[in-house]
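2024-03-11 09:14:02 DEBUG pipeline.ingest accepted 1 chain
2024-03-11 09:14:02 DEBUG pipeline.ingest length=252
2024-03-11 09:14:03 DEBUG pipeline.predict start
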Amino acid sequence: MKEKIIEIKTPKEIEILKECAKIASDILEHLNAMLQSGISTFDLETEARKEMSGYGVDSAFMGYRGYPSVLCVSINDELVHGIPKKTKKIKNGDIVSIDIGIRHRGFIGDVAATCPVGSVSAVAEKLLAVGSGVFEVILENSTPEKRLGDISHAIDSYIKKRGFSVVRDYEGHGIGRELHEAPPVPNFGSPGSGPRLKAGMVLAVEPMLCEGSWELTLDSDNWTVRTKDGKLCSHFEHMIVVDEKPQILTHW
């Protein structure tokens, strides 16, 4: 099969992607500020829809491959694709992953973070610190002289050295006019492998890590992915522009 071309974004396109990233990130931060015991994941969904309407943007998730919501909200042992529900309540001590995608001016903004609710366990605190801290080595390997495998290997090494396992069944991706573009960005790999990075590539890098085993299971809703052993997991995502001085477009 012919390998898909990795698109290089123009400076004008990158400026639009910055706008997309900022809107998605601002909404994520607004939702994070709402997190407290007793609210439902659908309360977050409702607020996200209001915010998108206020910004005049569309959801990149709603209807994508049949997905029924504008947010993915995943709690504790749920890794990704948790469907917001009125009956699903958040409580103190939970860690909550919020993933949001918006469409604006023909381009996509996509960002995710796992956030603590109240006081969380020591292992949860470490899991979140490692999941967010790994972007330091991701940036170091997002320059034009590197290869995609250098990013993947850096993620894997950073996480494993800190005592967690790395998810192998889901990965990051290129991003631009479409939510998922070439190349896929695995969270594990061999240094010096894969396509060579070029300035202007835009990647949505998504480190996913687990307290225990990386093995996963799919709920009966055919969307919610959780750890097979029921232990905690986290998911973070930033949009990154490959350059001599790589840029993170999203924030949380």
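2024-03-11 09:14:41 DEBUG pipeline.report Residues 127 and 234 are 7 Å apart (CA to CA).
2024-03-11 09:14:41 DEBUG pipeline.predict end
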